[in-house]
Design goal:
By secondary structure, this protein is mainly alpha-helical. Helix content is about 65%, strand content about 0%. The chain has 9 helices and no strands.
Length: about 220
């Protein structure tokens, strides 16, 4: 039991160290000795858990995908708008509010979590073949959520959920690429600006409230002095 716990901790340390090295240096320049040194384990221990750099990269991608899934799952669409969201984020329904909130948390995660940042970076690294990372899961989730928004009447007339999904995915993956390759500092303010530009054209206008009937003049008294 103790050996199993120790092995699990070593594996976790290797995944995090690999993520930090991949995020800093990219896949091509990252070396297994550098990863083992950062993890504080021997090269032999690294090869025992991960015989190749590709397998280690795939494990980082898998861990990043799990982190992204948990991030999306813990968010419930809050009633009455998005706390701390951009102006106008209250327009639209539950699916759009959820998308705004999760994209905001994703940017925070990319800034703080090297595993998430490296996972997105590895998926788009031209030196790798077959890497997908969390980017594929994110694209499918955004498309599904916007199709749900369209079915619920949350999108403005004439807005295609597919076209809207392409815009959202391209923007978020672009931010992920900046974070991974250029150490670009991400902030929720960037997401707020993005949604402030996109959401007014994306969300259906709120239904108009019926006008309150006026009070007949005969029933009104003199204006107070």
């Amino acid at each position: 039991m103790v050996k199993q716990v120790r092995a699990a901790r070593t594996r976790q340390a290797l995944v995090r160290a690999a993520a930090e090295v991949f995020a800093d240096d990219g896949y091509a320049l990252a070396s297994l000795p550098a990863i083992s040194r950062r993890a504080g384990v021997s090269t032999g221990a690294l090869h025992f858990h991960f015989p190749s750099k590709d397998l280690l990269a795939r494990e980082v991608e898998a861990a990043a995908t799990v982190s992204l899934q948990r991030l999306a799952a813990r968010q419930d669409a809050p009633p009455g708008g998005v706390p701390g969201g951009p102006a106008g984020a209250g327009a639209g329904g539950a699916a759009l509010r959820l998308l705004v909130e999760v994209s905001r948390d994703l940017v925070l995660g990319l800034s703080a979590d090297p595993v998430l940042r490296a996972g997105f970076g590895l998926g788009g690294d031209p030196s790798r073949k077959g890497g997908e990372g969390p980017g594929r899961w994110w694209s499918e989730w955004v498309h599904a959520l916007l199709r749900e928004a369209h079915g619920a009447g949350e999108l403005a007339e004439g807005v295609s959920p597919e076209a809207a999904a392409v815009a959202v995915v391209a923007a978020t993956l672009g931010l992920a690429g900046l974070a991974s390759r250029h150490r670009f500092h991400l902030s929720p303010h960037l997401v707020e600006q993005f949604w402030a530009l996109l959401l007014p054209g994306l969300a259906a206008p709120p239904p108009r409230r019926p006008a309150r009937p006026g009070i007949p003049a005969a029933e009104t008294g003199p204006a107070p002095r």
